[in-house]
Amino acid sequence: MAGISSRIGRIIEKTNTKKRLVLFYIVFVIIPIIVSDTLVVSGIYRAEHASQEHIMENEANAINYTFTNQIDQAAKLGNALYSSLYVDDFLNRKYDSNLEYYNAYQKFFDDTLLKLVEGQSGLKFSIYLDNDTITNGGEFQKLSQAYESDWYKYMEASGRNKGLYFGRRKTADGQTARTIYYFQRLNYYNNTSNNFVLVIIDYGKCADSLSNLNYENRAYICDSTKVIMSNSKYSNVNKDYADKKDINKIAFTQEFKLYGQELSIEIINNTNPLISIMKGKWYQFILLLVINLVLPLFVSNLMGTAYKNKLKEQQTVVAKKNAELLALHSQINPHFLFNALESIRMHSLLKQETETSEMVERLAKLQRQYTEWNEDEVSIEKELEFVKAYLELQKYRFGDRLSFDIDVEPECLNLLVPKLTIVTFVENACVHGIESKITPGWIFVRISSDGEFLTMEIEDTGNGMGEEESRNLLRKMRFANIEMLKEKGRVGIINACLRLKMISDEEASFDLDSEPGTGTLVQIRVPVIYLKGLI
Fold first, then answer.
1. What does the alpha-carbon distance between residue 82 and residue 447 come to, in Å, rounded to a whole number?
2. Per-domain residue ranges for the chain?
3. DSSP letter at 94?
4. What is the CATH topology of the domain spanning 14-300?
């Protein structure tokens, strides 16, 4: 009986030990593997999703810039006619005979070179006059000819002096085609004048410029009810505008306003995140599978396993930081490239001179700066070379409208700052300050140090900002974080502020002073101790 009891006891003890081992195995092996696999896979998925969203944002920015530039060409023509005293005199003069009008008509085009501008830009324009002494024909029509047109009814109903209308018109072959109209009242010298100019923008050319961007994702430009344009190479200009409600699976939306029209860019993501992850991260999944097979063999060494898990957690944190930095870097590149290329294109189109080669040389210098990203930090001396190259490029674009001055104390030249930070603020001053201002403007870059703090000031004499806009921008600068990069507007500024905060352990400070019509001053202060690097 004692032997039987002993054997029964050993069986019970063995059973309990097996249960404990199974429980131990489940708690310390199976569950950690499931949890870690879930975290890793979800992390990879979130990173891929964020990457795709960043790609779509860049696509939307490029489409916005390209489309806006096409419309701006028409607006520039309209503004030129709007502000010309010579044009106003021709339009409002009373002619005694058709012959007198015809002679004035011929002289008008000889003096203004509008035919040449019209041919080079690909734009067509018509001027509608409240003047009974003119003869209908060519680019000039009596106002009554426009009364039954959809775009005229829209213009009258909107009450705007200038704006856009997306409609249709008859072509030479008798068909109707999609058309973008830009209208502007010519009442600069007489605010009671009913004269206006209508600029016809080549819809096909505009659509081709979007499709030539060669993005894989399908993108649409829409107003509140219909699809205006798509980057599809097979878009038919003779079709009616599609209903916006027919667009499905929109993954990204960017809203913008253009000459009174509330528009949006809708992007459909053609890339399946799971398939993209499997194609691009297959080696990580193989590694994960190997870990899942090998890890249970080391159950007996719990301390070693705990140490490995801790090390893996630390590596994940480091990898996340690196990924954030790489994401910050990648957002900068297209921010400058589009503006630089546009400067070259416009200059070569209008000037056709050999000095274009100098612009290409400066563009190559810019390109090398942001593609050869071996180090995130560069000396202020190198960064200012980049600033000067960028401003010289912009001078080709703006001519005498832009002047600049760079003043830096010699002891500051060897201090290290994150690459492309100073030039980001300079670019912001150029685009948001000088570009929208008709009169000449200055950009000043001043860098000094009192031994404890480095002070960087970027000032422009541009249009400036209102109190609410400047207050919102200053708040974003001071509290810049990764999440803000997903929002719309001023991404470059937030990027630069965030990187300055990261290298200075959150001790970088920012200030902003702006006045409408006067200009904007941005001041950045960073402790010198964080900028010495390996010097």
1. 42
2. 14-300, 306-530
3. P
4. Beta-Lactamase (3.30.450)
The number of CA neighbours under 13 Å toward the Cβ of 386 is 24
Q: What is the pLDDT of residues 180-218, one digit of tens each?
A: 999 999 988 888 888 888 888 888 888 888 888 888 888
Angle at 148 between CA 147 and CA 152, to 5 degrees: 60
Listed in order, strand segments (DSSP E) in 156-260 are 162-170, 176-185, 196-201, 218-222, 227-230, 252-258
Task: Using a pLDDT cut of 70, give the percent of the chain over it.
Answer: 73
Cα 111 from Cα 412, distance rounded (Å):
54
Comparison of pLDDT for 232 and 14, the residue scoring more: 232
If DSSP states are collapsed to H, E and C, what string results for 401-446? HEEEEEEECHHHCCCEEECCCHHHHHHHHHHHHHCCCCCCEEEEEE
- Indicate the fold that domain 306-530 takes in CATH: Heat Shock Protein 90 (3.30.565)
pTM above 0.85, yes or no: no
Go through the chain and tell me how many residues it has: 535
How many whole angstroms separate alpha carbon 330 and alpha carbon 174? 49
Residue where the block lists tokens 């200030």: 511
- Best-predicted range by mean pLDDT among 218-227, 276-285, 315-324? 218-227
Task: For 455-465, write each residue's pLDDT tens digit.
Answer: 999 999 999 99
139 to 134, 365, 480: CA distances (angstroms): 12, 45, 52
pLDDT for 253 equals 92
Q: Which residues contact 436 (CB under 8 A, 6 or more apart)?
A: 462, 463
